[in-house]
Write a structure and sequence with these properties.
Proton glutamate symport protein; 18 helices
C-alpha cells in the first residue's frame, strides 16, 4: 500500500476506535489515552519536529545556492508573496462571508456566554514583526522558530552567493545535513500511520462525535468555506494550464498527513519529498517555495479565524459594523501569517484575533471542543495552498526559461545568418573576373 492509503486507513480506524471507546467504555478513555494514544501521538509529532528544522534549513540554503543571482531570487520571492497576498485575502473574506451568509450561530443562542465588560488590550503587531528577525541563527534552530529559521537560511544563502567558491566547503556540509535529514524522514514515515491513528483516536475518544451535533452549523459552515477555497485553487490551476488531478495524486501523502496530524510542519518534509519524486517540480523551486509557504501560507487558518470571529460576534449579538469587519479582516490576515504549524495553534491564535477585534475571548471555549476535528481540514488547505503556489511558480519559471532560450536561439540564428552572408559577400568580391 502507498503511504497515503495507509494514512487514510489509520484515520478511519482511529475515528472508529475512538468512537467505540467513547461510547462503550467511557471509564477507560482517560487511562488508555494517558498511557497509550497521547504518548504515541506526541512521540510521532516530536519525531517530525526533529527532522523539520534541519530539513528546512538545509533545503533553503541549497535552493539559494542553486539560484544564479539575486534578481532570480527576488523574482521568486515577489511572485510568491504577491500570490500569498491575493489568495490569503480571498481566504479571509471567504471565511467571513460564509459566516455572514449562513448565520450559523443564530440558532445556537443557548451556547452563548455573557460577554465580559472589559476588552483585553490588542497585541503589539509591530513587536511581532521585529521578533521575526533572529539575533542568533543557532537560537532560531534550537527553538524551532520556523520563520526565524527561514530568514536565517535566506541571509546565509545570500552570503554563499557573495562568497562564491570559498563557500563550497560549507555548501557540501549542508548537502550532507540534507541527505541525512532525508534518510531520517524516510524512517519516521514508517511510523506515520501509527501516529495518525493515535492522534485521531485520542481526539474522538475524549470529545466524542456528539459534540459535532451540538456545533453542527459551525462545522458545516467552516467546511463549506474550506471546500469553496479548494474549488478556487482548482480553478487557478486550470487557468495556469496545470492538472489538478496530477497535483492531488502527487501530493496525496502530504495532504493525508496534514489532515491526520493537523500540523503543517509535520506535512512539510513529506511535501518536499512529493514535489521532488512525484510531481517533478524543479529542486530549486520546491526547496525555496514550499518551506516559505509552510511558514507564511495559512489559507485554512485564515478561513477558520475569520469564520470564528464573525460566528462569535453573531453568537453574542454584536452588530457587524464596517469598523468591526475591517478589524476582523486585518487582524485575521496578520495572525494567519504567524500561526504555528502545529496542532491546536489555530485555537490559541484565535484569542489574538478576538482581542484585536474587541470581541469576547470567552467565545474560544465554545468552539474549542470541536476545533480539533475541523483543524485537520484547515491544515490540509494550508498545505494545498502552499503547493499550488509552488507549482504555479514552477510553471512560470519554466515558461520564462523557455522564452529566454527561444530568444537566445533566435538571436544566435540571426547572427549566424548574418556572418554567413558577410562571408559570402566577401568571397564574391575577392573572385577574379571571368573573361
Amino acid at each position: 500500500m502507498t503511504l497515503s492509503t495507509l494514512i487514510l486507513l489509520a484515520l478511519v480506524g482511529g475515528l472508529a476506535f475512538g468512537t467505540a471507546l467513547h461510547d462503550l467504555c467511557p471509564a477507560w478513555v482517560g487511562l488508555i489515552d494517558h498511557y497509550g494514544f497521547d504518548p504515541l501521538g506526541q512521540i510521532f509529532l516530536r519525531l517530525i519536529q526533529f527532522v523539520v528544522v534541519p530539513l528546512v534549513f538545509s533545503s533553503l540554503i541549497l535552493a539559494m545556492a542553486r539560484i544564479r543571482n539575486a534578481a532570480q531570487m527576488g523574482r521568486y520571492t515577489l511572485q510568491l508573496l504577491g500570490g500569498y497576498l491575493l489568495t490569503s485575502s480571498l481566504a479571509v473574506a471567504l471565511g467571513m462571508g460564509t459566516a455572514i451568509v449562513l448565520r450559523s450561530s443564530v440558532q445556537m443562542t443557548e451556547l452563548a456566554i455573557a460577554p465580559v465588560l472589559e476588552t483585553p488590550q490588542a497585541p503589539d503587531l509591530l513587536a511581532w514583526l521585529i521578533s521575526l528577525v533572529p539575533t542568533n541563527p543557532l537560537t532560531a534552530l534550537a527553538t524551532g522558530n520556523l520563520l526565524q529559521t527561514i530568514l536565517s537560511a535566506g541571509l546565509i544563502g545570500l552570503g554563499i552567493q557573495q562568497a562564491g567558491n570559498r563557500a563550497q566547503p560549507f555548501v557540501q556540509f549542508v548537502e550532507s545535513i540534507y541527505a541525512i535529514s532525508e534518510k531520517i524522514l524516510f524512517l519516521v514515515l514508517y511510523a506515520s500511520p501509527i501516529g495518525v491513528f493515535a492522534l485521531m483516536s485520542s481526539v474522538v475518544a475524549n470529545q466524542g462525535l456528539g459534540i459535532i451535533a451540538k456545533l453542527f452549523n459551525y462545522v458545516v459552515g467552516d467546511a463549506i468555506a474550506i471546500l469553496w477555497m479548494i474549488a478556487i485553487y482548482i480553478a487557478i490551476l486550470l487557468a495556469f494550464k496545470l492538472s489538478p488531478l496530477k497535483l492531488f495524486q502527487s501530493f496525496s501523502p502530504s495532504l493525508s498527513l496534514a489532515f491526520g496530524t493537523a500540523s503543517s510542519n509535520a506535512a512539510l518534509p513529506v511535501a518536499l519529498q512529493d514535489a521532488h519524486t512525484q510531481y517533478g517540480m524543479r529542486d530549486e523551486i520546491a526547496s525555496f517555495a514550499i518551506p516559505l509557504g509552510t511558514a507564511l501560507k495559512r489559507d485554512g487558518s485564515a478561513i477558520m479565524q475569520g469564520f470564528n470571529a464573525v460566528f462569535i460576534a453573531q453568537l453574542f449579538h454584536i452588530p457587524l459594523t464596517p469598523t468591526l469587519l475591517s478589524a476582523i479582516f486585518l487582524s485575521t490576515f496578520l495572525v494567519s501569517l504567524s500561526t504555528a504549524g502545529v496542532p491546536g495553534a489555530g485555537i490559541i491564535m484565535m484569542t489574538t484575533v478576538l482581542t484585536a477585534a474587541g470581541l469576547p475571548v470567552e467565545g474560544v471555549a465554545i468552539v474549542a471542543g470541536v476545533n480539533r476535528l475541523v483543524d485537520g481540514l484547515s491544515t490540509m488547505l494550508n498545505v494545498l495552498g502552499n503547493i499550488v503556489h509552488a507549482a504555479i511558480l514552477d510553471k512560470l519559471e519554466r515558461n520564462y526559461l523557455e522564452t529566454i532560450a527561444g530568444v537566445t536561439q533566435e538571436v544566435t540564428t540571426q547572427e549566424t545568418v548574418a556572418i554567413a552572408m558577410q562571408a559570402t559577400a566577401g568571397s564574391s568580391l575577392n573572385q577574379s573576373p571571368v573573361d
